[in-house]
């Protein structure tokens, strides 16, 4: 059996692993399709994350040094990928809500089989008939897009900007438009990403390399600026442009897992005059800003429903799609070295296999 791992910083490889039998409360999934995470996972892959030497303390709400001997990110066995779709091929004796042959989606790395809890696990999602695997593997980015749109307080009639058109940004474009935003402006330097956004809800798309985005936003909104800006790129110049283009009193929902900014980000310019609010948005942080009405599970349940009923379209987002045997080279190329060539990479283990047709239970 093979799995995709980072053997050292910025080096992906398929390595062997020994499969095992399931425990009484577990299920085993034969993976048919999968996808890596292009944001925080890439920081891990490159060895540029604070989690290398530190851990986030829920008690202190800050990063703290790891305790001596505590295990952090270990290259050589660092799994890559976070969403899988496949059929259940083995059940533990205590599992009653799933059957052999069920097509499911859950969190898991890119590997041939994934074993997860099959009891009291709401993240083990059954795929309805006709559901698309491309939508399913967007279960994770959709959560952060929905949280970003909600934290930006996008409302009917608003002028809304989405900066960065990876998977989170693309889904945020769709959600903002469906929420009733009057004008949705998508921003990304990659032409193909802008084209995908325009096909899926954006009214206009701007190239930040050739345009002064903040000034263009002001011109497009009769000098008012954007009511809300959803920033998913983590780029310092993008945040500077957002501060220039935000309306007085508007909200910037900062979804990106940012890095240390270089010199040039200047809060002494438009930020000082526009009474802008920057909200650092993260779907997984509890309590949710709208607690007790909203929490992580409600976000997950909502996103799954929107993905499975076709309200969201992620087929354009999952590209390129590569075969599992090519996934190590493809990860290095499309996720790490040349991210402009992809939006969210998909991995198929058998071409065309991850489509729902209720199979006969296996013996």
Summarize the structure.
The protein is α/β, with parallel strands linked by helices and 363 residues long. It contains 10 helices and 18 strands.
Q: Please, could you describe this protein's structure?
A:
The chain is an alpha/beta fold. 25% of the residues lie in helices and 27% in strands. The chain has ten helices and 18 strands. The chain has helices at residues 40-45, 133-136, 139-151, 167-178, 191-199, 213-220, 236-245, 270-273, 296-308, 327-337; strands at 2-8, 11-16, 26-35, 54-57, 62-65, 78-79, 83-91, 103-107, 113-117, 125-126, 159-163, 183-187, 204-206, 226-231, 246-254, 277-280, 318-323, 344-348. The strands form four sheets. Strands 3, 7, 8, 9, 10, 17 and 18 form a seven-stranded mixed β-sheet that branches. Strands 13-12-11-14-15-16 form a six-stranded parallel β-sheet, sandwiched between helices. It has a three-stranded antiparallel β-sheet with strand order 2-1-6, with helices on one face. Helix 3 packs across helix 9. The radius of gyration is 21 Å and the shape is globular. It starts with a strand and ends in a 15-residue tail after the last strand. Residues 355-363 have low confidence and may be disordered.
């Amino acid at each position: 059996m093979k799995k995709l791992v980072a053997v050292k910083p910025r080096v992906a490889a398929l390595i062997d692993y020994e499969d095992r039998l399931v425990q009484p409360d577990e299920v085993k999934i034969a993976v048919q399709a999968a996808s890596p995470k292009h944001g925080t996972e890439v920081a891990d892959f490159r060895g540029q994350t604070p989690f290398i030497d530190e851990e986030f303390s829920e008690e202190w709400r800050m990063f703290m040094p790891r305790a001596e001997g505590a295990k952090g990110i270990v290259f050589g066995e660092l799994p890559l990928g976070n969403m899988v779709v496949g059929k259940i091929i083995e059940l533990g004796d205590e599992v009653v809500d799933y059957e052999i042959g069920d097509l499911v989606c859950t969190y898991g790395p890119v590997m041939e089989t994934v074993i997860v809890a099959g009891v009291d696990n709401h993240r083990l999602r059954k795929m309805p008939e006709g559901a698309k695997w491309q939508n399913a593997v967007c279960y994770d980015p959709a959560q952060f897009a929905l949280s970003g749109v909600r934290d930006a307080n996008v409302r009917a009639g608003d002028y809304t900007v989405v900066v960065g058109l990876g998977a989170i940004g693309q889904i945020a474009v769709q959600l903002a438009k469906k929420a009733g935003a009057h004008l949705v402006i998508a921003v990304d330097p990659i032409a193909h990403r802008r084209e995908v956004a325009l096909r899926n809800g954006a009214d206009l798309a701007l190239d930040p390399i050739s345009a002064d985005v903040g000034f263009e936003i002001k011109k497009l909104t009769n000098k008012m600026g954007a009511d809300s800006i959803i920033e998913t790129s983590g780029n310092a110049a993008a945040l500077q442009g957002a501060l220039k283009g935000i309306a007085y009193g508007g909200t910037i929902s900062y979804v990106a897992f940012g890095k240390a900014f270089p010199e040039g980000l200047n809060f002494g310019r438009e930020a000082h005059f526009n009474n802008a609010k920057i909200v650092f948005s993260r779907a997984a942080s509890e309590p949710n800003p709208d607690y007790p009405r909203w929490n992580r599970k409600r976000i997950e349940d909502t996103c799954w429903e929107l993905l499975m009923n076709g309200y969201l379209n992620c087929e354009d987002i999952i590209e390129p799609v590569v075969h599992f045997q090519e996934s190590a080279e493809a990860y290095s190329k499309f996720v790490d070295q040349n991210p402009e060539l992809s939006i969210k990479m998909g991995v198929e283990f058998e071409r065309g296999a991850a489509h729902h047709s209720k199979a006969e239970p296996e013996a």
